Amino acid sequence: MTAPVLDHFLLRIAPAPPVSVAPELLRARESIRASLAALRQVPDSALERNWQWHDGELDVRYGFYRQYEELEDARTRVRPLVADARGDEGPARPLVAAASAARWDLHGLLSSLTDTDLDRDPGNEEWTLRQTLAHIVGGQRGYAWFTYWYLAQRDRPLNEFPERAPDDAEIGFPEEETEGRGTLAEIQRRFDDIVDLSAGVFGTLGDEELAARARWSGLLVDVRFRMVRWTSHIREHTIQVEKTLGFIGRPLTEVDLLLRLIAAGYGRLEEELLLLPAERQAVADALALAESVAERVTSGAQSVAEAARA
Predict the structure, then answer these.
(1) pTM
(2) Tell me, what's the pLDDT at 6?
């Protein structure tokens, strides 16, 4: 597991240290990444090959669905465990958790791509995949940075509320192009880092802070709007990635769609648990369950991949 690349600017302006992602979820993520890496090797032509599960003989296609079922079943099992903690949660945690689920849907879409896909020209002056991913990462960083800048202005009278952040507020802000540098895996890790950090910083905000004035595209909004926009922005450009794959002649295969289903299933599970207080025994039990199920999915994925090669 790579160490996170922390955004020191955001850490400096945040009023308190960010809440960390539970170690169990970090390990579960590594298991899901390993599962996707194993399953991406399966060609569509192998989906009807035999796969042994329990005492029966099914097909490889169902093996993909079985991993998704494991994750969906885990989600239904952790829900009652964390019901009390969810009942006490602040209003911001569900917003940042939804963004994490959106992040995993994007990871699923990207899971079968290679570094060579990043710079293929889609034509018609459309962005490359690298440019779109750079924008997604930079956009998430910008939502975090400038939301806190607006929060710092919340006591100013409405007639003095700034139309936009001044230029000097952007000192140290990375150029968008730099967010897309490196391999696909490096870009995805960069995205994970900023989503996790911004979730940890903003996930504890209360109703008063969420209602604070802010701006977006020149419009007067509130902080809650900007946080809801996290998920929407990720999903907006996930659709753009889908379109770009069509432009570069890389249509989605059935296996691609199944990989995305599994990744999204994990995202839905993580959405239930992200940033909940692990010191509560029920939450600790739910996190342990999520980790063990993710490990089981890895084992299942490897079995499916082996059957596809037989």
Answers:
(1) 0.94
(2) 52
